[in-house]
Design goal:
- There is one protein chain.
- The chain has about 300 residues and is mainly alpha-helical.
- About 80% of the residues lie in helices and about 0% in strands.
- The protein has 12 helices and no strands.
- Helix 1 (about 5-25) runs antiparallel to helix 9 (about 225-250), helix 2 (about 30-55) packs across helix 9 (about 225-250) and helix 3 (about 65-85) packs across helix 7 (about 185-210).
- The chain is globular and about 50 Å long.
- It starts with a helix and ends in a 12-residue tail after the last helix.
Length: about 300
């Protein structure tokens, strides 16, 4: 029977592999930063309310506030602001390769740098497998689209690619910074505070300079956008983000971050089922390699047998 950790990991992969539907429905009708900011604010309020009901009034030490602020800024505000801006200027294939491959790398790099984890050759091999699978799955599309647009807004596309890359780095950095908080406070409380504060900053950025943000506050978004928003609040943030925080605490950033090798497979399969998108043999190969990488990362190492001595 799969362990609790494995079940949580699989649930996270499925949830975050389906959130692209809600995001797509929302950003087609609502300014992206406003859409993300209001989503995270609503999720944060609900999570903190649930934490207060279950655990009592929150009591946080003043010395932990700088770490909490850094986590909120990195994981929510700086990550999503850069990601949404970057995706607007680079094709989806390039964005997928950059973000999904760099996120686990950043998680491992910061975990090693901040001494939250020690180097593990098995997990390093899992990262290499996952990145190879991503390259097989999304690489041809990224190269084809990049070449087709050569010379047309090249500087802006490079800036977009850099923004997507930074989003992955910010998310990985924030995830590792958050882990000491998760040893002191519940996953629900940490998830609630980071989403609330990060969402408030995103909303402030949106209202300060995002075109169409202020008129969009009236809420005339349409049924599809509101359905996507509600789905993201309930599943993407309330459930998914809390599960991710729990995995960060229990198995570390490197292993938790390998969701990035499984969620794209869920997204591709949904595209095939819901929208009739074609899946080629090469795509299946890429998905198989990504699953192998995630499986290797999540597998519990077998204990070494002690030699028998007479």
């Amino acid at each position: 029977m799969p362990s609790r950790t494995t079940l949580l990991f699989l649930a996270l992969c499925v949830i975050w592999g389906t959130t692209w539907i809600g995001i797509k429905a929302g950003v087609e009708a609502v300014p992206p930063l406003l859409f993300a900011g209001t989503r995270f604010i609503a999720a944060g309020v609900l999570l903190l309310g649930f934490a207060a009901w279950r655990e009592g009034p929150p009591q946080m030490a003043w010395r932990d506030l700088p770490r909490l602020a850094a986590t909120s800024l990195l994981m929510i505000t700086l990550c999503y602001a850069a990601l949404f801006w970057g995706v607007a200027h680079v094709d989806s294939g390039t964005a997928a390769v950059l973000e999904m491959s760099l996120t686990p790398i950043a998680l491992m790099a910061f975990a090693l740098w901040l001494r939250e984890e020690s180097f593990d050759r098995r997990r390093f091999g899992a990262l290499l497998l996952g990145m190879a699978g991503l390259a097989i799955l999304f690489g041809p599309t990224a190269v084809r689209n990049w070449s087709a647009a050569a010379g047309e807004g090249a500087a802006l596309r490079l800036a977009g690619a850099a923004a997507v890359s930074w989003a992955a780095v910010a998310y990985g950095w924030g995830s590792v910074v958050a882990r000491p908080l998760l040893r002191l406070y519940s996953s629900t409380f940490v998830a609630g505070t980071t989403t609330l504060f990060g969402g408030l900053l995103l909303l402030a950025l949106s209202l300060a300079g995002e075109p169409g943000a202020i008129p969009a506050l009236a809420g005339q978004w349409g049924l599809a956008a509101w359905a996507g928003w509600l789905f993201l609040v309930l599943f993407g943030s309330l459930i998914g983000y809390t599960i991710y925080m729990t995995l960060l605490r229990e198995i570390g950033a490197t292993r938790a971050g390998t969701y990035a090798f499984v969620s794209p497979i869920i997204a591709v399969l949904l595209g095939m089922i819901c929208f009739g998108e074609q899946v080629r043999l090469l795509d299946l190969l890429g998905m198989a390699v990504m699953l192998a990488g995630a499986g290797l990362a999540m597998a519990e190492p077998k204990p070494r047998l002690k030699p028998v001595t007479n």
